[in-house]
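Progress report, Aim 2. The chain analyzed during this reporting quarter is listed below.
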Amino acid sequence: MPLDFTAIDFETANSSPASACSVGLVRVRDGEVVAQTGWLIRPPAGHDVFNEWNTRIHGIRAHDVIGAATWVQQLDRLCGFAGGDVLVAHNAGFDINVLRRACEATGIAAPPYRSLCSLAVARKTYDLDSYRLPKAAAAAGFGEFSHHDALADARACAQIIIDAARRAGVSDVDALGSALSVPLTAPLASTPERAVA
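Predicted structure tokens for the chain:
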């Protein structure tokens, strides 16, 4: 099987994992980046207050997302880009939880994506003093980038997986996970809030 996956990164408006305010997506086919995109998201109601700390990190403010698609409006676009790929993220637990919680907050079922964590992969691949995304990406040959820009972060994450697979001598994400003892995971099933009695 070829090295095919979609790298994903979310930024959030506040500490709520449902507060997605931007997403970056990078499609990899046979170990090469073939497409990338990203957009702003209007966070779900009740999760849409922009915390000063978060804004300081990513620079996105409430007025930036006024005209953006809501979570529900953009989910088909996100899923259309990712297709049936494994989603790869740096600290994948965070990004997959954003996907799940934003779906729960809007009363829709979360798509059942499998995921692979590039942070865990980096820890098994490189000998670094820190495995934060900029350091791990640099070890993978991906130089300076706008950290906390969702698309730039997704691109950096993709490079870590591409480089790790090359170093491990494997040709797909399942084999990479096996070679490094980093299991691919599936998100927990989510129940739409509207369906809860």
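The first strand starts at residue 5 and ends at 12. The two ends are 44 Å apart (CA to CA). These observations will guide the mutagenesis work planned for the next reporting period.
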